[in-house]
Specification:
Number of strands: 15
Helix content: 40-55%
Bound molecules: alpha-D-galactopyranose
Distance between the termini: 24 Å
Strand content: 15-25%
Structural class: alpha+beta
Shape: globular
Oligomer: single chain
Length: about 425
């Protein structure tokens, strides 16, 4: 952009914010120069010297495939231009110091490599100690720490996977620091183990996988049962993905996420008595009537129906996306939201309301993102109707909640990466 364009753009933004509420635009590569400069400055202020490397670890959006990953199904996520910016320098001793601008009250959190057990007091930095511990368990020779400063524009608890972004970031830094030779899949698996066993969330592999492997302007069609995947490039000139944050935060560890995980396991146990499968998502929707007869609990029946229909929808969505058929994709997203709302029951009143208001405001497809029970929605909007959508939606939202919605127009970015030398 030329200086004049930037000037006009800022005036336009100021006008939009005044008129419509909190709207964030992320253009081009999605990486924000000011965030990169800011994180270097913060590093310098906190540690008193220049960082040697900077990194970006994005949040993610799952276009479709709600809760299919830990049921051996498919998912279709991409990385977004909201994420964690990090500045780091390696240390010569076995000490790790981490400062997050988003959690300033904690100051610099420190731990030694001889004290890697989970520690409440360590707060967010447990994600880092968890990765150190897991790598050491896996016999990687990790014997030195680092100084690390972080700043994130990813809303915590916003359903955009800030936790996976942090875990994969630490994995990537250590991979580079110690030349571990880990590929994206290995980093994803290590990060997932930390989240499951150290943090205590029984999440699937989707978030870590896309953050470790994502590519700009591309989604990944991932088979979560064997980690085979395909890149699905697509264009966003005519249609835009728009995120709306409900502003209601939630932690997966406290939500019913683990309950749904257990319920799926129960469904699987029942099904295994009748069909030869490894995962619930191995069942095709055509087998539903036959197999549902064996499930007495009506809630489990609903979970089962959601999972197999949703897995099928992911496959259809992948084709629609590859053909840039956003109208078809939109209708699949709408079906997916109804299914997570009524069958898997992981939505929330506010998320349902956001979906309804967005649909009335012209969205072609809307659904909640991520684990559910709060967080954000994904909406498909025709590019030339974007302004109209924002105006209509914001008005409807403000009439209802007397609150400004947070609307993010994101770019689809690469996964975790170093952003300087
Ligand atoms: C969270 C988990 C993922 C996935 C989604 C639901 O984001 O981390 O593994 O299960 O919820 O689709």
């Amino acid at each position: 952009m030329k200086a004049f364009d930037i000037y006009i753009f800022f005036i336009y933004c100021a006008y939009q914010i005044e008129k419509y509420g909190r709207i964030r635009y992320n253009f081009n590569s999605g990486l924000e120069e000011n965030m990169i400069t800011e994180i270097k400055t913060i590093f310098n202020q906190k540690f008193g010297y220049e960082p040697t490397k900077t990194y970006y670890s994005p949040g993610r959006v799952n276009i479709i495939g709600g809760h299919t990953d830990y049921n051996g199904g498919h998912v279709l996520p991409f990385c977004i231009s909201l994420g964690i910016y990090a500045a780091v320098s390696y240390r010569d001793d076995a000490v790790v110091n981490i400062y997050s601008k988003n959690i300033p009250d904690k100051g610099i959190v420190s731990f030694g490599l001889d004290e890697l057990e989970y520690d409440e007091k360590r707060d967010f930095a447990n994600y880092a100690s968890g990765v150190f511990k897991e790598l050491i368990i896996r016999k990687y020779n990790i014997n030195k720490g680092f100084d690390l400063a972080l700043v994130s524009n990813l809303p915590t608890g916003g359903g955009l996977s800030s936790s996976a972004a942090f875990l994969v970031l630490i994995c990537k830094i250590l991979n580079d620091q110690f030349n571990l030779g880990l590929d994206g899949t290995k980093m994803a698996l290590i990060s997932k183990t930390v989240e499951n066993q150290y943090i205590g969330v029984s999440c699937g592999i989707m978030d870590q996988f896309i953050i470790a492997n994502g590519k700009a302007n591309t989604a990944i069609f991932l088979n979560a049962s064997n980690l085979n995947y395909e890149y699905v490039p697509f264009k966003t000139d005519e249609y835009k993905f728009v995120l709306v944050n409900s502003n209601i935060t939630r932690k997966l560890v406290e939500s019913k996420y683990n309950v749904r995980q257990r319920e799926s396991q129960e469904v699987l146990e029942i099904l295994k008595q009748h069909v030869d499968i490894d995962n619930v998502c191995d069942v095709c929707p055509c087998q539903y009537e036959e197999l549902a007869k064996h499930i007495d609990n009506p809630d489990l029946k609903k979970r089962f129906k959601h999972l197999i229909d949703e897995n099928y929808r992911v496959k259809l969505s992948k084709v629609a996306l590859a053909n840039n058929d956003f109208v078809k994709l939109g209708s699949l997203l709408n079906e997916a939201h109804i299914s997570v709302r009524d069958l898997y029951e992981v939505s929330s009143e506010v998320l349902d309301e956001l979906v309804e208001l967005a649909t009335k405001s012209g969205s072609l497809g809307s659904k909640m993102i991520g684990g559910g029970f709060g967080g954000s929605t994904l909406n498909i909007i025709k590019a030339d109707e974007l302004d109209k959508f924002i105006e209509t939606f914001t008005k409807a939202y403000m009439d209802k909640y007397n609150l400004q919605p947070i609307i993010n127009l994101v770019e689809i970015t690469d996964g975790v990466k170093q952003i300087n030398d």
